[in-house]
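Run log // design_07
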């Protein structure tokens, strides 16, 4: 640092690193280097600004000489990282009566007076800390019949200052400057500012640089004003002018008062910069192109016009939605401005959520019920449910639902996963519902304040007397923040063009495979559209919860004779076979990994009297027999009871039937000649190698029989789901019987922590708030604990079995950080829900690119 002057004249080619002078100063120098008209300025280094705190204010600072009568400057924050924010700019410093008088000739009396009035107001609020509302009142007071008397405003503002500060408004520019610089430092050091920037990742000792710059006035004769503009659409990334301009204004006035501002290019909605000064728009566009090349990105320019002369005050990365970001990146690569690697690294994988979700067809009729704050992208239609449990039940019935709550808590998270969209009466963009919904990619509107939610009565009422009940269909349009009645047409995301190209680049770089967790043909089709490398997890139990199948499954579990079991199996087999035929056909030879039945036994047991009666009728048994058997089979802790492979060994016919269905389906599809199907079969909840051996022996026998019966020469592979800590520890043994491991990190996290997947919501928020966990380990893989088990299992597994394939199929497969971990650990693939696969593909590419840096 010692080599850098504390105060630097910002000129083309000056050495002004952001670390020393802040990001804004670095940008100014870069802009000057491109030849753009940037007003003269000086950068105060972070050290110089720190010294101001200690009253170190040398008399020889170079810009003090420039502060002569008639010259105005601005002071602007230049934090080391832009996102850290900083105090608002102070404009027109140096203004006093003498300068006002001098400026009257070139600018006109009103403009010069307006500049003085603005400065008095700005200085009073930002430096002397007077109440902004007092000044707003002055403007109202001195506006008669829409005409503002600026001279009266100036007089009253000076009087207001005198009365409240107890001295006359300072006329000496150097005194104004000293006080202003100190107020910047104080504002930066304030507690609120500190908390806000720390939330943006700033360290506790984050540095602030400052810029003192000659004013580009924006007020005066001819076309004068200020604005902000970029030449790409925020929403779509298309090449269109976006921004605002306001005549006779400064700074960000045009953005803050959009109702009175001009558009940039001609617009049917109102006047534009193009109407009042077309040359300025042409020039601005050319400057934007220059900045785009210089910064390697689309930039937003802050500009001022003085009698038609353009000055550029700043350039920041152009605003863009996640949807727009992909298109912009692709164009930058195609223009040779960025490399593919830079484009891939420049997009947060989570932001792809915005590209991936449906929206309401713009042409559809909209019956708007109410609106709120849209906080997670997309649109969805479903039936209203009021509790997380109801959402889960609805998902189990494959019935799309919208979860409506007053606000959500961690206990609602599983319900949110099951819902198509979430709606809350309370909350803001960073409320629990908003944050969780964004993370899991579910459309969400929060703060629907005119909606009354009666969870007990299962009723939602709106002020116009409209009442909606559980089961009524609504549509959440999180694009506009509106809740619509019924089911307007939704447009599925347009994943062609730029998105496809971008994702194909990700595929060029990634080495980690990305598969989808898909149980239904619909999931499989979506997965194909997302160009996955295969299916990494088919949860077959979902196939048994369908209405027609559940009773047959129950008959199998309750069967007392060989004959009864066979009868039930004969009904189930063709159903399963057709499920698999459909999946294999859709996947056209890509790997499909089918997990043998996993759920705890209790999920198949009839619960209500009606269900028991219906089973008794179907089986021709007395009701008492059924209730007795249900009692017999009930477990204290079903998640750790007769679940997964344990059920498979207790009722082996289930796995045998599933294996037969898989092989027969593979034979049918292979025979059709489209693709050779090599099914992967996975054994769940293993804790000992013997479990795998027993299953493998039976499955091998079925395989041989089907191959014999069908005459189709097939192959298959059998692997283990590593999701108990013991399986991870005994990976060396288990690898002997397994062609692959797929880590079920949902259960592995649950069992490693001894933390219920279903109940952790109760205390997760507190645990994170108290710093026990950095993040919810069910969302982001616990690298230290569960991660260590994974690494150990990989090492032991591969040492025992060289070609062992390694995958991960827990929720973490769609979490960018967890994907990075899997890449580093040398996994072959991750598998996650279809909509998250593009996120995983991009995260995998980023992990690979980071390694080569
Ligand atoms: C897992 O446990 O990580 C897993 C994928 O299986 P499930 O979520 O079905 O238990
Ligand atoms: Mg599991």
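design_07 sequence
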């Amino acid at each position: 640092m010692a080599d850098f002057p504390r105060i630097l004249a910002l000129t083309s080619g000056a050495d002004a690193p952001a670390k020393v002078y802040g990001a804004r100063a670095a940008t100014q120098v870069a802009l000057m280097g491109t030849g753009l008209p940037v007003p003269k300025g000086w950068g105060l280094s972070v050290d110089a600004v720190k010294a101001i705190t200690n009253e170190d204010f040398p008399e020889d600072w170079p810009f003090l000489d420039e502060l002569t009568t008639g010259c105005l400057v601005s002071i602007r924050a230049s934090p080391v990282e832009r996102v850290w924010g900083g105090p608002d700019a102070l404009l027109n410093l140096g203004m006093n009566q003498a300068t006002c008088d001098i400026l009257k000739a070139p600018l006109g009396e009103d403009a010069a007076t307006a500049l003085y009035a603005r400065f008095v107001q700005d200085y009073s609020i930002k430096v002397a800390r007077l109440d902004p509302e007092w000044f707003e009142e002055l403007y109202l007071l001195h506006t008669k019949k829409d005409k503002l008397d600026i001279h009266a405003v100036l007089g009253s503002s000076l009087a207001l200052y005198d009365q409240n500060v107890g001295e006359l408004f300072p006329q000496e520019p150097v005194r104004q400057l000293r006080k202003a610089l100190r107020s910047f430092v104080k504002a930066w050091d304030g507690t609120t500012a500190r908390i806000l920037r720390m939330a943006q990742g700033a360290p506790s000792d984050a540095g602030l640089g400052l810029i003192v710059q000659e004013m580009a006035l924006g007020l005066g004769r001819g076309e004068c004003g200020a604005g902000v503009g970029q030449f790409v659409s925020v929403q779509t990334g298309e090449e269109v002018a976006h921004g605002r301009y306001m005549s006779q204004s400064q700074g960000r006035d045009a953005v803050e008062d959009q109702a009175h501002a001009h558009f940039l290019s001609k617009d049917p909605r109102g006047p534009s910069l193009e109407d009042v000064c077309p040359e300025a728009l042409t020039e601005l566009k050319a400057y934007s192109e220059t900045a785009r090349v210089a910064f390697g990105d689309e930039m937003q320019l802050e500009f001022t016009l003085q009698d038609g002369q353009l000055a550029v005050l700043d350039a920041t990365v152009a605003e863009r939605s996640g949807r727009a970001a992909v298109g912009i990146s692709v164009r930058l690569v195609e223009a040779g401005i960025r490399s593919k690697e830079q484009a891939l690294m420049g997009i947060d994988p989570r932001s792809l959520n915005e590209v991936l979700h449906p929206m309401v067809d713009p042409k559809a009729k909209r019956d708007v019920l109410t609106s709120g704050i849209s906080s997670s992208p997309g649109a969805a239609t479903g039936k209203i449910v009021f509790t997380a449990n109801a959402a889960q039940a609805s998902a189990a019935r494959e019935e799309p639902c919208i979860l409506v709550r007053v606000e959500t808590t961690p206990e609602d998270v599983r319900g949110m996963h099951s819902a198509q969209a979430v709606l809350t009466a309370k909350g803001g963009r960073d409320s629990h519902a908003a944050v969780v919904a964004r993370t899991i990619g579910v459309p969400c509107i929060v703060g629907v304040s005119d909606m009354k939610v009666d969870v007990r009565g299962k009723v939602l009422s709106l002020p116009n007397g409209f009442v909606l009940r559980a089961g009524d269909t609504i549509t959440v349009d999180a694009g506009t923040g509106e809740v619509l009645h019924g089911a307007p047409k939704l447009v599925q995301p347009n994943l062609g063009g730029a998105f496809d190209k971008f994702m194909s680049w990700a595929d060029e770089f990634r080495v980690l495979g990305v598969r989808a967790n898909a149980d239904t043909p619909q999931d499989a089709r979506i997965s194909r559209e997302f160009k996955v490398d295969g299916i990494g997890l088919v949860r077959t139990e979902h196939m048994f919860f369908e209405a027609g199948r559940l009773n047959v499954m129950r008959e199998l579990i309750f069967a007392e004779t060989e004959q009864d079991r066979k009868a039930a199996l004969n009904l189930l087999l063709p159903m399963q076979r057709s499920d698999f035929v459909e999946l294999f056909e859709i996947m056209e030879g890509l790997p499909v990994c089918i997990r043998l039945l996993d759920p705890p036994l209790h999920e198949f047991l009839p619960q209500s009297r009606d269900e028991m009666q219906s089973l008794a009728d179907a089986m021709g048994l007395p009701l008492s027999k059924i209730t007795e058997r249900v009692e017999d089979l009930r477990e204290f802790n079903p998640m750790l009871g007769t679940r997964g492979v344990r059920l498979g060994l207790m009722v082996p016919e289930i796995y045998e039937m599933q294996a037969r269905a898989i092989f027969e389906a593979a034979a049918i599809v292979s025979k059709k000649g489209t693709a050779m199907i090599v099914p992967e079969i996975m054994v769940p909840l293993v804790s000992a190698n013997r479990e795998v051996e027993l299953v493998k022996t039976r499955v091998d026998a079925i395989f041989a029989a089907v191959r014999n019966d069908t005459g189709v020469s097939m192959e298959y592979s059998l692997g283990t789901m590593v999701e108990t800590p013991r399986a991870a520890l005994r990976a060396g043994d288990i690898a002997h019987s397994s062609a692959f491991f797929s880590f079920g990190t949902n259960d592995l996290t649950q069992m490693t922590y001894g933390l219920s997947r279903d109940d952790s919501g109760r205390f997760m928020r507190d645990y994170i708030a108290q710093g026990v966990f950095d993040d919810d380990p069910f969302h982001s893989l616990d690298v230290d604990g569960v991660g260590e088990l994974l690494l150990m299992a990989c090492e032991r597994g591969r040492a025992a079995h060289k070609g062992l394939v390694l995958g991960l199929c827990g929720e973490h497969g769609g979490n960018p950080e967890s994907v990075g971990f899997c890449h580093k650990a040398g996994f072959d693939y991750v598998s996650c829900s279809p909509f998250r696969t593009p996120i995983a593909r991009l995260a995998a590419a980023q992990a690979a690119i980071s390694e080569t840096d």
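The radius of gyration is 33 Å.
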